[in-house]
Each structure stands twice: as structure tokens, then as C-alpha cells.
Amino acid sequence: MDAIKDKIRFIYIPFLKIGGGFIIIYTFLDWFLFIKLQVFSANETLYDVVLPFALPWIPHLIWLWPRIKLLHIEKRNGRNPAHLFLFFAWGALIFPTIKAQDFMVAATGKLTKLDNINSIDKGDATKYYALQKCFVDTKDIGVFRHVFTNNGSHGHKNTVIRMSIVIPIYAEIYDTIHATCNAWIGVMYNEPLGTELFGQELQNECASFFAKSLNDFYTSDLYSFSYLDRVGNNYKRDEFREAILRSKKISLTDENIFTAVNTPFEARNADNLKWLLIGSFIGGLVWFGMILIPSFDKQKLQEFIIKHDRLA
């Protein structure tokens, strides 16, 4: 029982503090530097995925690794299994950090209510918009078809078919006589095939997917949205821009590209919060189970406790 208490005190609680502290500090810096100050323009994948994937190594290596080495873990075949504990501590922090960025972006995004889309450039740009009235022109859509191959694990390749559709938004139907458009709704369809396809087989898959996606698009209710969500600087915007180039309309700006959201605005963060909590709970539970398995190195623990008490 004393050993479990010591593991909770010297390893598990520090693990929670390091993880929680990293998520809070990183999320604040993400908001302050990239959203509020906009110190530089970069693809959102960099600070919403890449950095949360890479940076958790640093606090774990500095503060958690010395505590992991208190456990008695014997080397096997010249390898130190203790590194597995460090690896998992890093992995357990990645998903919650990424979901925390999604939560922060949605929570801090401002909702602007407009009578119609013509008023969108009269104030500061915001992430969310609610329109009193609008007209979407399904006759002048732009469509971009994209087929590419992802490199998965163990050399496995996966062909992905993607179709991006943009629809011009107007205040009313009479505005469609203009050759220009100031705002667009984007709809994206994805189909990972699970394997790499070529030739006629790929052509058949593409034809079937494109036909099915267009049928879904034309039978959906494009007026049922509760609000519009501005597309950020990411791959979706890149592909929607390509679709705009294939529309009959000339775009006045490619900054006003949105996705239509059917759920209430108040519920925008429900899934992000749910997965943030689930990811944190599972990671913390598995980590706790891992540190229960090995025993302490008694000499290292005693030296650590003496040092810890001296600094307290």
C-alpha cells in the first residue's frame, strides 16, 4: 500500500500536473499568438496538430523522466523498457492537446448576426455568422475533384477520393445576375478506399463516388443551417479555393469561405469537450496501470525522497 501511495505521490500526480500544465500553457499561447495577435500566418495544421504532437516530449523529458527512473525496470537485449513509459506519457498527451485546440478555437470564436451576407465586410471578420436571410445559388457551383495517395504505416498506401463543392451565397435571388460573389459555402466529401487503386478499377470507384456525392449534395437542404463557420487556413480552404476557380462566378475574396452547421450554436463545443475528457481519462488510467506493474528501485527512491524533503 505504501508503494502505491508513493507512486501516486511521486509519479502519477506529477504526470497529471505536467500534462495539465502543458495543455493550459500551450492552448493559451496558441490563442494569444496565432488568434489574438496573429503574429504570422501559417497553416493551422502546424499549431493545432504538428506542435501538439511534437512538444509534449519536452516537459516529460525534463520533469517526468527522472521520476520514471525511480522504477526498477531491467534492461532487455540492451534496451531500456523505461523509455516505453516515457513514450506512452508523451502519447497520452497528444490527443487531449489537439482536442483542447479545437475546443479553444470554437469557444473563443465570435458569432456575428447579419441581416444578409452583403453586410459581411462592414465589420471585423469573425469566425461564425448567422444570417436572417440568404439565397444559395446551386446553378453556379464550383467543383474540385481530387484523387491522391496517403502513405500509411508499414509502407501501406491508401488512395483517397475527395470532392469539394462551393456554392455562392447571396442576399436574395436577384443578386445572381452579378458575375461576382463575396461569400461561399463549402461542402466536402471524402472516400478513403483502404488500399491503393489504379487504372479502370480506380476510375470506376471515382465515378461511383462522384455520382453518389453529387446526388447527396442536390438532395440535401442547404437552407437548414443554423450558422456559418469560417474555414481556417488549412487544406479545406485550399481545396475550396480550387473549386471556386471552377465556378462561373468571380470571387471578390477567398477569405469568406464557410461550412454550414445545422446544430445550435450553443452545442458547437459539445463533442470537443467530450473527446477531450475521454482522451484525458483513458490516457491517465492506462498510465496509472502501467506504473503499478514495476516496483521501486529502493535506493533511488530513498535518495529522491531525501532530496525532495530537502527542497520542500
| Count of discrete alpha- or pi-helical segments spanning 4 or more residues | 8
Q: Can you summarize the main beta sheet?
A: 8 strands, mixed
Strand content: 15-25%
Distance between the termini: 24 Å
The overall average pLDDT, rounded, is 91
What Rg is obtained from the alpha carbons, in whole angstroms? 25 Å
* General form: elongated
Q: What sequence of helices (H) and strands (E) makes up the elements?
A: HHHHEEEEEEEHEHEEHH
Helix content: 40-55%
- How many β-strand stretches? 10
List unreliable stretches of 5+ residues: none
- Structural class, please? alpha/beta
Query: What's the number of domains?
Result: 2
Structure description:
This protein is of the alpha/beta class and 312 residues long. The protein has helices at 2-36, 44-54, 57-68, 82-108, 199-219, 235-245, 270-292, 298-311; strands at 111-114, 128-131, 135-136, 142-151, 157-170, 180-181, 184-192, 227-230, 250-251, 257-261. The chain has two domains: 2-108 and 269-311, no CATH class; 111-265, no CATH class. The strands form two sheets. Strands 1, 2, 3, 4, 5, 7, 8 and 10 form an eight-stranded mixed β-sheet that branches. A two-stranded parallel sheet has the order 6-9. Helix 3 runs antiparallel to helix 4 (82-108).
